[in-house]
Design brief:
Layout lengths: L2 H7 L13 H12 L2 H16 L18 H38 L3 H10 L1 E5 L5 E5 L6 E4 L5 E6 L8 H14 L1 H7 L1 E4 L3
Antiparallel strand pairs: 1-2, 2-3, 3-4, 4-5
Helix pairs in contact: 1-3, 3-4, 4-6, 6-7
């Protein structure tokens, strides 16, 4: 019998959780609370978590304390689990497609030298007319560094869009802001001075 099916047949709640500090009353408190509507709802939620959890979860069932699920309840939980898995897979596919598009867009905005740097170092340099040079590493936060004349990091900048976007989109936004509004970039970013 697969683990998921055994888990559906042997659902339970952990014993020993209570609101009192005296360990002798924990079990009593837990059992009393578990008989309430809130306890039954929590048991259903916990059941869903344990069904979708890792296969290393121990099978725990205490006879007579927790009512067994009906076949309809097990079927409903399994349908909910299948829906959640399908939604997660769809979300992952959409994210991967967005990341692929973002990577292509980033590369379109890099010159040949920057593309080579990105391929080789997972970072690229941005040189500005102000004489400053920046290194944008693959990442979203704290991934922009100002370099000195010898190429050493002197400042780290943490600046990124407020949205959940692919890494390449964030890197492109950082590059474009540096190139077109370095003053605002430096005003908005959290700056960390680096040891020389």
């Amino acid at each position: 019998m697969p683990y998921e099916q055994r888990a559906l047949n042997n659902l339970t709640m952990p014993v020993g959780i209570g609101t009192y500090t005296d360990s002798s009353t924990n079990m009593t408190s837990w059992l009393e609370w578990n008989q309430t509507i809130e306890g039954q709802i929590t048991q259903q939620i916990w059941s869903t978590w344990t069904v979708t959890g890792a296969s290393s979860l121990p099978e725990m069932h205490i006879q007579g304390i927790y009512p067994a699920l009906t076949s309809e309840e097990r079927a409903r939980l399994e349908a909910e689990r299948q829906r959640a898995m399908a939604q997660a897979e769809e979300h992952q596919r959409a994210y991967e497609a967005a990341a692929t598009r973002a990577e292509a867009l980033l590369r379109e905005h890099l010159d040949a030298e920057q593309q080579g740097q990105l391929e080789r170092d997972q970072a690229f340099l941005v040189s500005l007319t102000t004489g400053r040079r920046y290194r944008i590493q693959r990442g979203q936060q704290g991934n922009v560094f100002e370099l000195d004349a010898q190429g050493r990091r002197v400042r780290k900048f943490c600046i990124h869009p407020d949205l959940s976007i692919p890494v390449a989109d964030s890197m492109l936004a950082q590059k474009l802001m540096l190139e077109h509004d370095e003053v605002s970039f430096r005003m908005i970013a959290n700056i960390t001075e680096m040891a020389a």
